Amino acid sequence: MSDQYRNFIAGRWVNTGTQGTLTNINPADTREMVGVFPAGGAEEVGEAVAAAKDEYPKWRLVPAPRRADIIKRAGELLVQHKEELARLMTREMGKIIVETRGDVQEGIDTAWYASGEGRRLFGDTVPCELPDKFGMSARMPVGVCGMITPWNFPMAIPTWKIFPALVCGNTVVFKPASDTPATAVKLVEILLEAGVPPKAINLVCGSGGKAGDAIVDHPDVAVVSFTGSSEVGRKIAARGGEHLKRVSLELGGKNAQIVMDDADLELALEGALWGAFGTTGQRCTATSRLILQDGIHDKFVNALIDRARKLRVGNGLDSGIEMGPCINKAQRETVKSYVDIGINEDRATLALGGHELTQGDYALGWFFEPTIFIDVKSGMRIAQEEIFGPVLSVIRVKDFDEAVRVMNNTMYGLSSSIYTRDVNMAFRAMRDIEAGITYINGPTIGAEVQLPFGGVKATGNGHREASHTVLDTFTEWKSIYVDFSGKLQRAQIDT
Ligand code: NAD
Question: For the whole model, what pTM was predicted?
Answer without folding.
Answer: 0.97
